[in-house]
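Incident log, support desk, overnight shift.

02:14 A customer reports that sequence design results differ from what the structure should imply. Their input is reproduced verbatim below. On-call engineer (initials T.W.) acknowledged and began investigating.
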């Protein structure tokens, strides 16, 4: 089976951390029909960083700006892999063998027996895309 990797974008919002901020942000997007494909949120000190992969980043960006947020987009690698034991090992091994450093990774799995989507930031996204798309894996 071939891996399928594409260059993608995520919407990044940095805001003061407070209870309910993610709920508010998600509601603004849902009310306008934006589907969230993957989400990562973390807090450092008093600041929250929320990363969103959506089905329409341009509209998501506009909606968030309407509500006083200051989002920006960042490049990511989107990788579709089978939702099976050992896949994270295989993916990280492919990058390690190519001397590509993973800076951040998060995932979204939508079916127990289907595929999941990995969202990666690396020190060399272009090379990661090439390596993933030329690689065959056993499942």
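02:41 Re-run completed on a clean worker. Output:
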């Amino acid at each position: 089976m071939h891996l399928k990797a594409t260059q993608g974008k995520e919407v990044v919002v940095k805001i003061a951390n407070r209870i309910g901020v993610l709920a508010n942000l998600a509601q603004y997007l849902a009310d306008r029909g934006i589907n969230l494909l993957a989400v990562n949120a973390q807090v450092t000190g008093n600041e929250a960083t929320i990363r969103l992969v959506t089905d329409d980043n341009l509209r998501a960006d506009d909606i968030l700006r309407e509500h006083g947020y200051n989002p920006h987009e960042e490049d990511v690698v989107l990788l579709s892999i089978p939702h099976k034991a050992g896949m994270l090992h295989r993916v990280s091994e492919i990058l390690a063998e190519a001397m590509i450093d993973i800076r951040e990774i998060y995932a979204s799995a939508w079916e127990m027996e289907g595929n999941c989507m990995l969202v990666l930031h690396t020190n060399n996204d272009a090379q990661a895309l090439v390596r993933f798309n030329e690689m065959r894996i056993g499942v």
